Amino acid sequence: MSKVKHSRFNCNPGCSVEAAIGLLDGKWKSLILWNLLTEKILRFNELKRRIPNVTQRMLTNQLRELEQDGLIIRTVYPQVPPKVEYELSALGQTLK
Question: What is residue 27's predicted lDDT score, i.e. its pLDDT?
Fold first, then answer.
């Protein structure tokens, strides 16, 4: 059963803890957030090295969901090869 995006912010059916768990639901999201809490800014391959068992596809999907939820900021630099950095947003910083 897939979740509808943006329904994770809706606290009507349950409590705020349920909404927070909906945002952090995912096998790798907590590890991604923990690494960004300790290291401010990380590139994709640095995250992949720090979480050795995650596949590239799963890491990409989890990062996209975190970005859609507003917990992380993805910065793309226009250069060759492409450089992409991830950092916690102001909302993501509140998880401390």
Answer: 85
For 9-46, give the secondary structure using H, E and C: HCCCCCCHHHHHHHHHCCCCHHHHHHHHHHHCEEEHHH
Which whole-number Å values give the CA distances from 42 to 6, 12, 46, 90, in the listed order? 26, 35, 6, 16
Share of the chain above pLDDT 90, in %: 56
- Per DSSP, the residues of 49-88 read HHSTTS-HHHHHHHHHHHHHTTSEEEEEE-SSS-EEEEEE
8 A C-beta contact, residue 70 and residue 91: yes
Quote the CA–CA distance of 87 and 77 in Å, as a whole number. 14
The answer to whether residue 1 scores a pLDDT higher than 50 is no
Beta bridge partners of 83: 77
| pTM assigned to the model | 0.79
